[in-house]
Specification:
Helix content: 40-55%
Number of helices: 21
CATH superfamily of the largest domain: Aldolase class I
Number of strands: 15
Distance between the termini: 38 Å
Strand content: 5-15%
Number of domains: 2
Oligomer: single chain
Structural class: alpha/beta
Length: 496
């Protein structure tokens, strides 16, 4: 069939229907960013678009990121992980005073090595009436998570169960997903009743709601990740959703969103096409001007390619051998962190390190003596969790773990602060999505990090996804398309 010269311009006007008089007659409906994803998800959360900016730890998912997303009709989460509760409360106060009724949330991260910290953050979120959390890195259900979810649960006059606090879980394992899609464990509910956080009536209502109605399938992402491929993980969790929905018969249907590797219009559309209720981005937001990272890191991220990531030991779960995905290009962090874990596994304490290894660590990694590092570490934990100090003074292995975690913890703060003489030690959480985004943005205004703004990036990705959706509808009706012209049409062309 003949294709009009202005076809591609017309496809780019995503809010307008397109009609070709043929033969045959071709009709392509309007597909707007507001149309993508689950309409019930958008309605329940008061969103214009089913697009979320995930929490990035240590405040990288900043107040500014959350504000920008909320004002654009999308949802952002403040990166509370790794921060002192006082800092988290300061951010919550600012968001509550500036955003009014707009939707936003805060991260609640599983902290197996610091359960009191997890409990403290959950308590302040309950006390400050923060209505949404992104629950991440959970290996199982914890008491603080259940306390947050069930706080204020009640039944309305017509018998509906209302849980004011919303948990949006982020998982990559089916067995963990099943726990989020189930009601909270009876044992934990009973403990909350015993502690006076729930009444007997509330404990009965708790059996009628899932721990999380919305669950993000986290594929190959930055930070904590199992490197799962989205194309297999999303359908698996959708099948689990359907099975548990049929089993529990919740009045509101369970939903699955998608995260990990989402950085191009094609990737975003693919997630929605597989049945994702919403999409969630992470790595690409860290490279935006509103993030709590530094200009130095933003430039490093803007130069990254898909192969420039690597797995490295995690600071928060170091002793467990848990790893996070980080940027490899321009930094030696991953190699040095791996060496620290190797030494931790091989020796019972710092005093048992071979002299050559100790000298190398003090010269190249810590840039000071291990004794001074322990003094700093001891002061830090004396303020944050004195029990850690008591344990370390009795257990040389634990002392070594805390000293090594000094480097892993500060490496991300050096990156966020843009400490130039520590650039080689920067820990920058990053997945392959960053490289895909840079390739998509090459030759456009978004190639430069100073032009990247979270809401504008989101709009461009969603608009591009709409163009691709309309192109696919045209293809199905027999319209031949020039792939090069179509690819050009989905790339960002203007600044925010």
């Amino acid at each position: 069939m003949s294709v009009p010269a202005d076809l591609y311009e017309a496809l780019g006007r995503v809010g307008e229907p397109l009609r070709l008089d043929g033969p045959p007659v071709v009709h392509v409906p309007a597909v707007r960013p507001d149309d993508l994803g689950d309409p019930a998800f958008r309605a329940d959360h008061g969103l214009r678009c089913a697009y979320l900016a995930g929490a990035m730890a240590n405040g990288i998912g900043s107040v500014a990121v959350v504000q920008a997303m909320a004002r654009a009709g999308m949802l952002g989460f403040f990166g509370a992980a790794g921060l002192d509760p006082a800092r988290v409360e300061q951010a919550v106060a600012e968001l509550q005073s500036t955003l009014g009724d707009r939707p936003w949330g805060v991260n609640l991260i599983h902290s197996p090595n610091e359960p009191d910290l997890e409990a403290a953050v959950a308590d302040l979120l309950v006390r400050r009436q923060v209505r949404r959390v992104e629950a991440s890195a959970y290996l199982g259900v914890t008491l603080p998570l259940v306390r947050y979810r069930l706080a204020g649960i009640h039944a309305t006059a017509d018998g509906r169960v209302v849980a004011p606090n919303v948990v949006i879980g982020k998982v990559s394992r089916v067995e963990v997903a099943a726990k989020f899609f189930a009601p909270a464990p009876e044992k934990l509910i009973a403990e909350l009743v015993r502690q006076g956080h729930l009444t007997e009536e509330q404990s009965r209502l708790a059996a009628r709601v899932p721990l999380a109605q919305d669950l993000t399938a986290e594929a190959d992402s930055g930070g904590h990740t199992d490197n799962r491929p989205a194309i297999t993980l999303i359908p698996t969790l959708l099948a689990l959703r359907d099975r548990l929905q049929a089993e529990h018969r919740y009045p509101q249907r369970l939903r699955v969103g998608a995260a990990g590797g989402l950085a191009t219009p094609a990737g975003v559309l693919a997630a929605f096409a597989m049945g994702a209720a919403y999409v969630l981005t992470g790595s690409i937001n860290q490279a935006c001007v509103e993030s709590g990272s530094s200009d130095l890191v933003r430039q490093m991220l803007a130069e990254a390619e898909q192969a420039d990531t690597i797995m490295a030991p995690a600071a928060d779960m170091f002793e467990m051998g848990v790893k996070v995905q980080v940027l490899k290009r321009g930094t030696m962090f991953a190699m040095r962190a791996a060496k620290l874990y190797e030494l931790y596994r091989a020796y019972p304490g710092l005093d048992d390190l071979p002299p050559a290894e100790r000298a190398s660590l003090e010269k190249n990694v810590f840039r000071t003596t291990l004794g001074r590092v322990w003094d700093e570490t001891r002061c830090f934990w004396q303020r944050r969790d004195p029990a850690q100090v008591e344990r370390a003074e009795a257990d040389p292995k634990h002392r070594m773990a805390l000293v090594f975690r000094w480097y892993l913890g500060l490496s991300s703060r050096w990156a966020n602060g843009g400490v130039a003489d520590r650039k080689v030690d920067f820990q920058v959480w990053c997945g392959p999505a960053m490289g895909a985004f840079n390739e998509w943005a090459r030759g456009t205004p978004l190639e430069r990090p100073e032009h990247r703004r979270v809401a504008h990036v989101a709009e461009e990705l969603l608009r591009g996804a709409c163009v691709l959706q309309r192109a696919q509808i045209a293809r199905l009706q027999g319209v031949p398309l020039d792939e090069e012209k179509l690819s050009h049409l989905t790339r960002p062309t203007v600044l925010a």
